[in-house]
Each structure stands twice: as C-alpha cells, then as structure tokens.
Amino acid sequence: MPIFSLEIFPPKRTAPVGTIYDTLDGLQGLEPAFISVTYGTGKSVDRTATARIANTVRAEYGIPAVAHLTAQYLDEAGAEEALDLFDQAKVAGVLALRGDRNPEREPANVFHHASDLAAFIRERRPDLPIYGACYPEKHPQAASLDEDIDNLKRKVDAGVTHLISQLFYDDEDFLRFRDKARAAGIDVPIEAGIMPVVNAGSVRHMADLCASRIPERLAVMLEMWGQDPASLKEAGVVYASEQIRDLVARGVDGIHLYTMNRPCAARRIWANTKAFFA
C-alpha cells in the first residue's frame, strides 16, 4: 500500500505561531502516515518553531511528525541543539537537507552537503529514521541526472532511510528518475512530492527554483486560467489528483503532498484520491 504524507511550514515570523492550528484543524480527517514540518536557514528560532509545531502535530493531533533540518548554516553545536529539541518533541524522523543559499549569510562550512548532516545524525542518533530529498529532474547544480543519482546514493549510504522528491509536473519525469535510482541500488522508499497548482506566479517561481519543467498540458492551463485564481485553483486540484492517480497506478511508494498551509486544496485532493491509499 502506498504511503500518503503531508508537508506544512511554520507561520511567518510576523504571524502568531498559533495560526498553525488553522492549518492543522483544516487538515483533520485526512489520514497521513506523517506530517513533515519545514525549517528555515539555521537560526535557533527556526529549530525551536519546527520542534514546537512537530510536538503539536504529534501530541495534539496524534500524527507522527518529521522535522526538517537544513545543513548550510549549522555547526555541530547547532545540530546537537536541534536534535535535542526534536528528541523532546518525540519526532518520528528528521529530514536532512542542505537548504537554500542565503546571500546575506555566510555558510558555517561544517556540513557541506545533506549527506554530511545525515552521517552526523546517524552517528548521534543510530535509531532515528532519516529522510532525504531527491530531484526527479536532477538537482539544479548537478551536471546530469546520472551524476545526481550517484550523489543520492552517497546520501542513502550515509544513513538516509526514506526519500521525498521535489515537485514535478510530469509523472514520466518522476518514473524515469525512480527507475534509474533503483538501477543504481537505491532501495529505500521514494515518495513522489506533489505541489498543487493554486497560483500561476508561484508555479513559475517554484519551477525556476527547482529547475522543474512545465509540460505543455500545464502551460495551457496556466495560459487559460492564470488570471482567474478561482478557476486555476479548481484546475490545479484536478491536475494534482490526476497526477496522484497515475503515480499510484504505476506503483510508486507514496505521495507527499505539499500543502503550502492551504488545507482546503489538500482536503479536496484527498477526497479525490483517498480510495487509492485504502
């Protein structure tokens, strides 16, 4: 049976942390195996917020929580502090990421890659599940998909036990990647990351950020309804539901739905697809 999981993020620093309850309340009735909670670029306030929300997900909603942890701006003391906080929150796992570059900050130059952070976590917490990210269309900085999969294999060898993909909009890209990963000896679960289309500008921004291709079917949809948010949201729910249906039919290990703290869209996609996870 495929896994179904969700991602949420802490409220912006200008918003009360309690607003996360609006998101979590809106997601009640869905049946995720876990909810992952994102993390900023490495400030202590980021790990505290992530730990607090992960604890809320587990303690108040009864859902296992996976806490993100980004590597670039962490030193070993910061990583230890984060792991201690996550221990207290009783997280079900840690998603070890390199994280985005912040031009206003200098990297700590301790954990250069997510695999370095995964190895550190594995040494300090031998029994803790470690999640990792993967890129169906290759990491933007990789020369080729084959090179990126070689790097991914090193990440798994360093201790990652479960992979979650970045967004993609053509299922064939994910399936091609999955088959190459399996051929390279990567045998851990690989969940397909689905980000619903709800805003034309954000789709193009995220596609640029992740070097993700916009297939013709999606381009036509954006052209047709890009200036009509209500219609685009309706079309986006259908598009994501169809992606999930196709992926589950073709034997993927699971679906990780990026909710973007928009529970309404997530609920409708779940209603369309929950039978596939029964």
UniProtKB/TrEMBL annotation:
Q: Which GO terms describe its molecular function?
A: FAD binding; methylenetetrahydrofolate reductase (NADH) activity
Q: Which domain of life is it from?
A: Bacteria
Q: State a single Pfam family of this protein.
A: MTHFR
Alphabetical keyword list: Amino-acid biosynthesis, FAD, Flavoprotein, Methionine biosynthesis, NAD, Oxidoreductase
Coiled-coil segments:
none
Which catalysed reactions does the entry list for this protein?
(6S)-5-methyl-5,6,7,8-tetrahydrofolate + NAD(+) = (6R)-5,10-methylene-5,6,7,8-tetrahydrofolate + NADH + H(+)
Say yes or no: keyword NAD present.
Answer: yes
Task: Look up the record and name the cofactor or cofactors this protein needs.
Answer: FAD
Q: Gene Ontology cellular component?
A: cytosol
Pathway per its UniProt entry is:
One-carbon metabolism; tetrahydrofolate interconversion; Amino-acid biosynthesis; L-methionine biosynthesis via de novo pathway
Give the EC class as a word.
oxidoreductase
Q: Cite the InterPro entries for this sequence.
A: FAD-linked_oxidoreductase-like, Mehydrof_redctse-like, MTHF_reductase_bac
- EC number(s): the record gives 1.5.1.54
Q: Which is a GO BP term held by this UniProt record?
A: tetrahydrofolate interconversion
Q: Does the keyword Zinc-finger apply?
A: no
Q: Which PANTHER family match?
A: METHYLENETETRAHYDROFOLATE REDUCTASE, METHYLENETETRAHYDROFOLATE REDUCTASE (NADPH)
Q: Tell me its family.
A: Belongs to the methylenetetrahydrofolate reductase family.
Q: What is this protein's record name?
A: Methylenetetrahydrofolate reductase
Q: Which organism is it from?
A: Bifidobacterium anseris
